[in-house]
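Data deposition worksheet. Section B asks for the primary sequence of the deposited chain exactly as it was used as input, without tags or linkers unless they were present during the calculation. Section C holds the resulting structure in token form. Section D is free text for depositor observations; keep each observation to a single sentence. Incomplete worksheets are returned to the depositor.
Section A, Depositor: J.P.
Section B:
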Amino acid sequence: MEPLNNVAAKQRPSRTRASAYGYAAPCIQDGTAEDGMSRRKPYLVGHQEFARLYRVDPKQVAQWLSPSRGSVLDPSTAVVVSGVRYWPLGFAVGWGATTARFRQGDHDAKAEIIAELGEGWEPSLAAELPPIVGQHKIIQIFGLPAQGTLATTIASGRFPERDWLLSGLMLWMLETVLDAAEMLRETARTLPWEVDEAVVAALRDGTYDGPGSRVLTPSGAWRSWRCGGHRSCCNSHGEGVAACQKVVAEPRHAVTRCGSSDSSNVTVPSPWRA
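Section C:
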């Protein structure tokens, strides 16, 4: 059987070079810079995918992160996007061999995750990752008035296709979003879609501390709800893939209001909520 860490070895860059995009962009194996390589998406995993690698419930990943259990999984090994942690795939698959209690990663699960993500490369450290954004950060980049504005734009097909769909949330590389700015301005009816360069600079140099940069709940953020018959994929922080306008957290439930022809409230049990 092929070693777990070699499943994507052919796609893994061997070293990095300085990049105009403000992060370390990968180089190809012979050392020649490849045009566009910095735009190749790195393989990431969220809570659900991390759990798949070790054949456990996603709630177990939250327990590994818990200080009360000794933080078996160090939270600092992840990046936070839209209030949710994501890990480089290379780190995730090797993590089980670094713990006091050895845990074997699932070879098949890794191969499946790579197949689902498509072409990319396998990082091992969070520092290797390019700037990654979710809807909270995108709202700050463009100074949008409300999350519903962005959700509607995504649902209309005007927004660029997401680079990842992980643990129920859509993520983009920062450059994917910036590349679409001109098109968004040209097709907008009222909003200017002007880029806030200060936000972009903070995202590139790792100093951004605005909405989406902190973990708001230790688990349950990836839950997908079906609201009024419309798939809205809202998480516990109000991150809506479709037209979710509002999420109100209650001790045992998530109440969602969907911004479509159906405006009724639907209460959905949320047993994974911390």
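Section D:
Residues 10 and 65 are 31 Å apart (CA to CA).
The chain is about 25% helix and 15% strand.
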